[in-house]
Amino acid sequence: MSHFSPLEPALPAPTRPDWPRAFRALRVIRADPDRTDQVFELHVALDGGDSERQFQALLAEPGGADLLRDSPELLDHLTDVAALEALPPDTLGAAYLALMRANAHDPDGLHRAAERIQEFAALHRGAARTWWMERQSCVHDLLHLLTGYGQDQAGETALLAFTDGLYGRRHRMRVVRFGMIASVLSAPWGSKWRTLVFAWQARRRGKRSRIPFGYRWEEALKQPTKELRAQLGVAPPAA
Q: 14 pLDDT exceeds 90?
């Protein structure tokens, strides 16, 4: 059974986006891409109620309420090195472990970056919404692996575009679309057109994919990445 109370209060009414704050965060990110805390600064500035709408969308999905009831801790699976090492090399979990080791990343790094922005917690008030936020932070790197997009600027731009295509039609995600557009516009003039085409292809790829908010990533870790792409409608990277 879930440890979340069904009586948790809803979040306050949506607020207006703070565009000046968003552009300040963007300038910091462009000057220092390692400032991942500023990604969450963007979330705070542009959320405008989007986080709560996405949480409600999770509950409305088939199986979403069951996921919340079970409340599996994805981070626990991503930090279980022994279990990940035991997986076949073609699985998503093995690829995740290789990615973390190659880049000296910590699975909990995004969560700790989020904690540096105090207002970010207010967007996810209560245990259930906090669990959801932490889970979504973990999913980011898994989407990199599933799509094949790297963690450089081009890969991050493509993943934003993919995410906008995947969810943007049904659920407003201002911070994702803002980041996608800003990344394309900030590309060097000599490659701006190629960057735009790359992002457009990634967005179209996302629109054709089927990954619900309530997807059971814990189970996906044990599956071959190639098979997962076929199940979720994610076109191979070469396409």
A: no
